[in-house]
Amino acid sequence: MTTFNALLLDKREISPGVFFLTFENGKQYALDFKAGQYVVATIPTAQGAVKRLYSIASSPLDTSMFNLLVKRVEGGIGSVYLSELLPGKTITLSGPAGLFSLQESPTHKVFLATGTGLAPIRSFLSTYKSMRCSLFWGVPTIEDAGFLDYFKEIRENNPLFDYYICLSRETLETLKQAQNEVVFFPGRINVVMELYLGPTLKGQGKNQFEYYVCGSRTVVDSLKTYLFSLGVEKSNVFFEKY
Ligand SMILES: Cc1cc2nc3c(=O)[nH]c(=O)nc-3n(C[C@H](O)[C@H](O)[C@H](O)COP(=O)(O)OP(=O)(O)OC[C@H]3O[C@@H](n4cnc5c(N)ncnc54)[C@H](O)[C@@H]3O)c2cc1C
């Protein structure tokens, strides 16, 4: 892993408390990564530096910049620091690192992510633009669902991509009131996934997918347990735990 200083070019709050950061690449140092990998951020504190890991949320095909997607955890050392970093400032990063990557096979990919677990999946979607894939992204409410224009654009360019934004704190009733778009579904990821891939999941077809799971340790563990309970083979499940 190489250590380098990365210049922050832009920072956007894409939904409450979730920040999309754009760093310059290729000028001072060229970060050469594979879709799905992460960087290690060195966070200065009064007690000394601490390290935090962040998945790269953009494609290695774009060599001029890279993105991170950071959820601000109140009282959290790394996430608060990054959410308050101003464009024009630099941060020390090391990387790339990590083995979470996409199998380059024609197999239909099923992406299961919650919150900022979307970051490496976004890197996959931005890199492999014609793969057959389904995204089930879990966030609590409509307000938390950023990137709608991004998903729309990916879908317009890839008819083999479908996506379902799974809203754990919404109900059919609240969604109706919000006159939402068709991509929103009330409920947790596994419930929505079963609804849309149901017949295939119950038969032999479940092992015709590759599953990529990313999110907090608890979420990843429970989704893995769920997939295995359906009879999905371990060799078809790839995951990154935050
Ligand atoms: C491989 C890998 C990739 C990762 N990629 C990302 C990424 O792309 N985006 C991202 O935002 N994070 C990512 N993380 C998590 C990230 O590394 C930090 O753990 C996270 O930002 C919290 O760090 P912190 O320093 O802000 O909080 P800390 O100072 O470590 O913790 C402060 C308090 O908050 C609690 N806490 C920690 N995380 C959470 C949470 N998510 N929700 C609620 N409470 C919490 C802790 O238990 C503690 O009590 C990744 C982790 C790994 C292992």
Automatic annotation (TrEMBL):
<dbReference type="InterPro" id="IPR039261">
    <property type="entry name" value="FNR_nucleotide-bd"/>
</dbReference>
<dbReference type="InterPro" id="IPR001709">
    <property type="entry name" value="Flavoprot_Pyr_Nucl_cyt_Rdtase"/>
</dbReference>
<dbReference type="InterPro" id="IPR017927">
    <property type="entry name" value="FAD-bd_FR_type"/>
</dbReference>
<protein>
    <recommendedName>
        <fullName>FAD-binding FR-type domain-containing protein</fullName>
    </recommendedName>
</protein>
<dbReference type="InterPro" id="IPR017938">
    <property type="entry name" value="Riboflavin_synthase-like_b-brl"/>
</dbReference>
<dbReference type="InterPro" id="IPR001433">
    <property type="entry name" value="OxRdtase_FAD/NAD-bd"/>
</dbReference>
<feature type="domain" description="FAD-binding FR-type">
    <location>
        <begin position="1"/>
        <end position="103"/>
    </location>
</feature>
<dbReference type="InterPro" id="IPR050415">
    <property type="entry name" value="MRET"/>
</dbReference>
<dbReference type="Pfam" id="PF00175">
    <property type="entry name" value="NAD_binding_1"/>
</dbReference>
<dbReference type="InterPro" id="IPR008333">
    <property type="entry name" value="Cbr1-like_FAD-bd_dom"/>
</dbReference>
<dbReference type="GO" id="GO:0016491">
    <property type="term" value="F:oxidoreductase activity"/>
</dbReference>
<dbReference type="Pfam" id="PF00970">
    <property type="entry name" value="FAD_binding_6"/>
</dbReference>
